[in-house]
Structures are given as C-alpha cells and as structure tokens.
Amino acid sequence: MRETYGVVLPGMNLADLTGKLIVIEGTDGVGRSTQIRLIKPWLEQQGRAVLETGMTRSSLAGKGIKQAKEGHTLGRITLCLFYSTDFADRLENEIVPALRAGFVVLTDRYTYSLMARAMVRGIDPAWIRSAYSFALKPDAVFYLRIGVDDLIPRVVFSRGFDYWESGMDLHPSEDMYESFRKYQTALLQQFDVLGEEYGFEVVDASADVRTVFERLRDGIARVLSGEPREPLFAVQRPKEDAEASAESNVVELPAAGKVVAAGE
Amino acid sequence: MKRYAEHRFPGKLFIVEGIDGSGKSTQLMLLHQWLQAEGYGTVFSEWNSSPLVKETTKRGKKKQMLTPATFSLIHATDFADRMEHNIIPLLKAGAVVLCDRYIYTAFGRDVVRGMDPKWVRELYSFAVKPTGAFYFRVPLDVAMKRILDGRTGVKFYEAGMDLALSEDEEESFKIFQGRILEEYEKMVPEFDLIVVDATLPIEEQQSQMRAIAKAKLAQAKRLRVAP
C-alpha cells in the first residue's frame, strides 16, 4: 500500500492507488518543463494515461498565490502555507483520483522544491517537514541537477532574471546577477541535502536536452516496469547531519542598512 | 524561526476563545473599551481579516470546495499573514493587541474535522503565545439558545455540514459545536487557558477579565498612551 511521510489526511484511502507518481525536481530554469513536454507524449504513445501537474496550478489557491507574488507582500511563513494549501488541493483533487484511476502522474516539482525554498528563507526544517508530512511518497523522484555556472547562461539567455528566482525578497544583493548566484547556490545545496534524505535519482541536467530525456525515459521505463532502482547517488547520512547542514545553508542577509556598492 | 513560546516584545496579547454563543466577543469589546479608557494603546485584530488570502478562502467556502485539509491550511495561511504583518509588528511597537479567536479555534475545529491533533499544533507553532488566553466556558444548550434565537440560519462550514453529521443544519451545528466544546476542554490544561464561567452575568465576567488583565499589565506602565 502507498504511504505518506507522516499523517494521512482525513478521508484519504491509500489502498488501490495503482497508478505511478513520478516527480521531476530541479531548480528554476533547469529544463523541467521542456522534459515533461517530451515525456508526456512518449508515455501516451505507449498507451499510458498521463496526468500532468505542477506548483500553483490548483483551482483553489493557484490564482491567489500568483496575485500575492505580484504584490510581493506575503511573509515567508504565509507564502509557505499558501503553497501547502495549493499542494493539498491538487493532492486531493487531482493526484489521488488519478492514481486511483491507474494514471501515471507526472509532477513538475513536488514538496521538495517548496521545502528547499522555505529553508533557504530561514524556515525551520523540522516545521516545514511536518507541514508537508501528509504528502504521498512518490514512486520516483528524478532530480535534474545542475551547477550554478551552467545554470546562469541558460536563464540569462532565455528569459532573464526573475525576482523570485533570484531570491530578491531576501535582498542578498542589490545586483540581480549576484542575488541569483547566491540564492541559487544556497538552493542547490538544499536540494542536495534533500536528495540524500529522500533518495532522489540524479540526472545530470548540464547535458543536452536529448541526453537528459533519454536518461529520464530509461529511468521512468524502469519504474513503470517495477524494476529495482539504481543505487542512490550518495550514501545516506544520519538525519541529524542532514538537518544541521540544512540550517547552515540559509542565505546570509547583508547587515541592516548596509548598502552594497555597484560592482562590488 | 521562533516557536510557540513567551514573546519578548514590549506589547501584550490578549485573546478570547469559546464556542459560538459563549459571549466572548461581547466580553472582548468591553475589555477593549476599558483598556482604552485606562489609556493603553489598544488594537483589535480580527480572525479572517487578511485581504490577501481572504479571496481564496471566500471562494473555497462559497463553492464548497474545501476539504478538512485545505480548510485547515487556508486558515493557517490567513493566520500566518496576520501574525507576520499585523500581530507581531503591533507587539513590537508596544501595543496591547486583542484577538477574537486564536490558534485554539483552529485546533478545535480542525481536529473535529479529522486532522491530526499533533500536526495542527505543529503547523501553528509559529504563533506567539498570548499574555492571557480567556476561554468562555458555556454549556452547549445555553450557547445554542443564544445563537439560534438571534439568527435566521447558520453557514455551511460553520454548521460543520461538510462532515455530513446530519441533514438538518441546526442538528449538524449542535453536534459540531458539541465536539468542538470537548476539544476546548482538552486544551484548558494543555495551554493554560483562563476559564471564565460564561453563564455568569456579563458584568461579573467582565470584572474577572479586567482583574486578570490588570495584573498582567501591571509591569507594563509604558504601554499607556499619553492623552
């Protein structure tokens, strides 16, 4: 039977969720949606029904989050909880019914991205884990891993720096480039910590689109056929260590009142 | 991130709890009047008042699309917004902050809706511990009489209609409030709630409340606002 990471929501029957829950994780601009656009038709060609879902797409809270982010006025705890409302709505109304109907649920990010973002913003790791402990354990998490040096040109030459993706709400620097670099570095460190804890399967996302797709395709084919997974990308560390290093990855804020000179 | 604990802000936080019809709002209004007359800088903070999350909550309720989980989370979101943008800044500024309902309301109704008690408590652990939390204890039938006499009907979620306790709204409301009452009683020792007998005359309840508030404000002379 399927499991959650802790509590089971009222009315949620975990029996007979025969579909497969496959998560594509990775930071902003790493190419998750490009890959999902390739994976979905590939699965459908094989006769698999696919439900695609992703953050802030719930009918309940999706619109509210988008509006709130435009105003940049939500506090960090509030934003965390707004995202978890969105997630719970999609879990109950999309993911679980689709799994019960035998679909392959392909999700663009899962709770891990939300945890990583929260922890970079100084949210207590134990609190955020508990808040999301109602989440279903997926069948596989494919983590598109990239270094910040490979990430930057992709983002700059496609859509440019985004306020939230640069962690500008944390004011790590006056300069968007420096902010992006600092913020994404901290985020990637958090992903590595979570990857060890939750057993992500790592795909090198610095490779070209085709190569990444082939890796994902092979991995997903293996999950669907019920074969055992490849070895974890790193040795499991004791939980205390993982949490301790998660704490140290919080983005350092400049001292109050300190102005960062241009070009510094 | 601070966890539920005594705050060190200069302000003070008083909250009231109790089932619908316990008279808690009336008592808080009277306390507000008195605090202002005494010269304290007093601010009223209402449940469900955040404009940002309000729209989502309203839509979810209107379309009856909330489950116990999303009901719990959207209210926690709203509460967090108030905590971060309203209550904490006011306490830092040295105000006496008054709240009609607090985290204990969520603990009661969410647990009755089937949410895990520990999970809900952990979810709200970012909340500041009140200086004084007054619980207005009232027998169910007394509260029901007060409510149902003065109203034409109860709202869907307020009556716990989502729990399918009864087809009849009034009956459902009674069962739901009765279960919340049981949860409140468990919280009295757990959170040191100050119990006020809500069947006493209004003036008597109020004088008890003022005496307790006065004692807790004794160390906070500087909260008084110059006339």
- Estimate percent helicity of chain B: 40-55%
Cross-sheet strand order for the largest sheet of chain A: 2-3-1-4-5
Number of strands of chain A: 5
Structural class of chain B: alpha/beta
Question: How would you describe the overall organization of this protein?
Answer:
The complex is a heterodimer of chains A (264) and B (227). By secondary structure, chain A is of the alpha/beta class. Chain A has a domain at 20-146 and 200-232: 3-Layer(aba) Sandwich (Rossmann fold). In chain A, 47% of the residues lie in helices and 10% in strands. Chain A is built from 9 helices and 5 strands, in the order βαβααβααβααβαα. Chain A has helices at 32-45, 62-71, 76-100, 111-120, 125-131, 148-156, 176-198, 209-225, 239-248; strands at 20-26, 50-54, 104-108, 140-145, 201-204. In chain A, strands 2-3-1-4-5 form a 5-stranded parallel beta sheet, with helices on both faces. The radius of gyration of chain A is 18 Å and the shape is globular. Chain B has 227 residues and is α/β, with parallel strands linked by helices. Chain B contains 8 helices and 5 strands, in the order E-H-E-H-H-E-H-H-E-H-H-E-H. Chain B has helices at residues 24-37, 51-62, 68-92, 103-112, 117-123, 140-150, 169-191, 202-217; strands at 12-17, 42-46, 96-100, 132-137, 194-197. Chain B has a 5-stranded parallel beta sheet, sandwiched between helices. In chain B, helix 6 packs across helix 7 (169-191). The N and C termini of chain B lie far apart (37 Å). The relative contact order of chain B is 0.21. The mean pLDDT of chain B is 89. Chain A binds chain B through residues 6-7, 9-11, 59-61, 63-64, 67-68, 71, 73-78, 80-82, 84-85, 88-89, 92, 122-124, 127, 130-131, 133-134, and chain B through 1, 3, 52-53, 55-56, 59-60, 65-70, 73-74, 76-77, 80-81, 83-85, 113-116, 119, 122-123, 125-126.
